[in-house]
Amino acid sequence: MEQTPRYTRVLIKLSGEALAGDLGYGIDPDVVAEMAVQLQEIFDCGVEVAVVVGGGNIFRARTGVRHGGIERTTADYMGMLASVLNALAMQDALEKLGVQTRVLTAITMNEVAEPYIRRRAVYHLEKGRIVIFAAGTGNPYFTTDTAAALRAAEVGAQAIIKATNVAGVYDRDPKQDANAKLLPRLTYMDALRMGLKVMDATAISLSMENRIPLLVLNMREPGNLMKAIFGESVGSTIEADPE
After folding, report:
1. For residues 160 and 214, is the Cβ–Cβ distance under 8 A?
2. Which of 67, 71, 143, 214 is least surrounded by CB atoms within 10 angstroms?
3. Does 1 have pLDDT greater than 50?
């Protein structure tokens, strides 16, 4: 392993479903604590860490629209609010480890979090605090994947790390096809052309335009996050086409 991290500022995308663990719904405190330890480990290596959390473990906007008859814009805002709950849970877990954190939300709620301001986010990162972004972009019709790509570009992250519950990106859904093959390296254009659902097209396009590599890995596998930070081959890496 290299002596110094390959990346010194990263953005980690955590899905809400990942925080539910085996419960399938809600927040599993043990899983949140486990993820907080991994974030602390890379933070202690001198890496500036930003996190974007989803809210799908509490409310999935598309499911609400489809099954509950909730209007799309309202459902999206409900999902954003759910992500704030997850951000506060992650903040609590990190601070129990002695790590200073700040939650910045795109929907103003001064009593529980700071409003998102790009310069403030960068300031906190430079001061040695883990920054947790909540409430997506603050706008309906945009996913938290897109929020991750946007925030990564805004704060100058050198990579986006997407934590999933599978080993990386496959050519087919590994849950439905046992013959699905792991793709260790591909380009953003490959992902778009193959219709891979690693991130939505808006997020992929934004990452591609800003030439931010996307690392997809299973964060529940001990050591994976640290390996990725130090440049070891783990999971899948999606990069822009060489110029």
Report:
1. yes
2. 67
3. no
Of 222, 236, 235, the closest CA to residue 41 belongs to 222
Q: In angstroms, rounded to a whole number, what is the distance separating the alpha carbons of residues 59 and 57?
A: 6
Q: In which order are the strands placed within the sheet that holds 236-239?
A: 114-115, 101-105, 130-134, 48-53, 9-14, 159-164, 214-218, 236-239, 185-187
Of all residues in the chain, the percent with pLDDT exceeding 90 is 71
Specify the 3-state DSSP secondary structure of 165: coil
Kindly report the length of the chain.
Answer: 243
Query: Does residue 62 come out as left (phi exceeding 0), alpha (psi in the -120 to 50 range) or beta?
Result: alpha
pTM above 0.70, yes or no: yes
DSSP state at residue 22: G
State the pLDDT confidence band at 2, using cuts at 50, 70 and 90: very low
Alpha-carbon gap, residue 69 to 123, rounded angstroms: 42
